[in-house]
């Protein structure tokens, strides 16, 4: 049965602070499914006196990853630097949520609509494995990897914009800024391990890295594929939700959005986390992560794929292009795949 209520704060989770009234959970077999939906992150600090004092304290330390973000670009971070910043800063009581995002990510500009408290969380009770999708971790690949656009591609109005501002110092700075304004992210979920000690603090929780044991030993490449045709068969849906993580309209030159949705059937569940980019009249991109599990089996299938194309190469008629380019789901079948990886994630009784 699908019920709504407030739950205890789970081990370290950027999507946990600020739970809203729209917080749902559903349990089936060995799985607990949780979603939270809340308001957009404020666009500036909401407690400047307290936050400035805490910022000064943090920035006086030797940890350079906590320094205030540059106004001209987004510094590259390693995964270790990002994780260290997150664990050090996110539960700092002397910072508002905007300042936490600013210090952890050090981005020159956050997406216009960042849903900082939204999340989808899957908890496997027997193994204590938690798979979560939240906005903070979804934004992390932007500063760690910085995909941007293929070399030479710009928004359709950029040439005229630059010609009109050739002698402007600000224009030269913007063009040279190390900032991925497409907010491209190949985020495929956050893995954590629930604590046996229910009184433990959130900051004491163990976040699992896919590139390190024990999680790296449980995630292995596989030739098995998610049966998409089986998922197209009409059958009962016990639980469904779709959660937005962030969205930006690219200064009216397109859209970049990231969301995650789940549906639970009597015999299985299916998750799709999708990043979609459309640069008007120029380019489209998808980063998809699909997770599929049949109840009773001891593993999940996870498929990560990248699709992208110049819009001119899609060979769409004018009428078809106008209809499809505003509908990511319908457009998806027309965009060629660039790469795809499928993993099998074993649900070990204990991942300690």
TrEMBL record:
Bias class Polar residues marks the residues at 193-202
- Give GO cellular component annotations, separated by semicolons: cytosol
**Which residue ranges does the record annotate as region Disordered?**
193-214
InterPro entries attached to this UniProt entry: Phosphatase_reg/MetRdx, TIP41-like
Which GO biological-process labels does this protein carry?
TOR signaling
Question: What Pfam families would the database entry show?
Answer: TIP41 (PF04176)
Q: Which domain of life is it from?
A: Eukaryota
Family to which the UniProt record says this protein belongs: Belongs to the TIP41 family.
| Protein name from the UniProt record | TIP41-like protein
Give the originating organism.
Answer: Dermatophagoides pteronyssinus (European house dust mite)
* Biological classification of the source: Eukaryota, Metazoa, Ecdysozoa, Arthropoda, Chelicerata
Which gene produces this protein? LOC113797260
